[in-house]
Amino acid sequence: MRLLAFGASNHSASINVALVRHASARFKEKYRPDAQVELLDINDFEMPIYSIDREKSGGVHDLAKDFYARIGASDALLISFPEYNGSYTSAWKNIYDWMSRIDRKVYQDKPTVALAATPGGRAGAGVLGSVEASAPHFGMDLRATVGIGGWGNAFDNEGGALVRPQDIEALDAALAKLV
After folding, report:
1. What domains, with CATH codes, occur in the chain?
2. Residue 43 has what pLDDT?
3. Looking at the whole model, is its pTM more than 0.85?
């Protein structure tokens, strides 16, 4: 099994990148030791802001084609979405917009678990709601969503792992749906 995992953040100390790293390691440890995990850094896919004029003059950006191909080569997706003002980050939205010009089914019907980590108590409810609403329109086979709020009390930075039993249980239940 090939699992593609990424945090949809370009922040160098992103808690969502920390969460997706932990979740992908837990997936291998608990469910699929044979899984090949590819952990992407979206900073490696920085492109000009999408516009139809840019697309008409130069075509779809090569980095968008590369990201789209990596989704296509995977068997499942594990994505952690930070919530910026109740929605996706502009960094992820730009990559997503470019890929949608290749095919509207950006996620290519891959089984997906969507995560969110936030310092606040809403646990990414806004961004996860957006993911749930858009999933059927963009080819995401959404198996589960898990929001982790109160990040400062939820994650051990030194150990790189969730610490609250309810968060661990929710993550494990979601990851099981990728098997």
Report:
1. 2-176 (3.40.50.360)
2. 97
3. yes
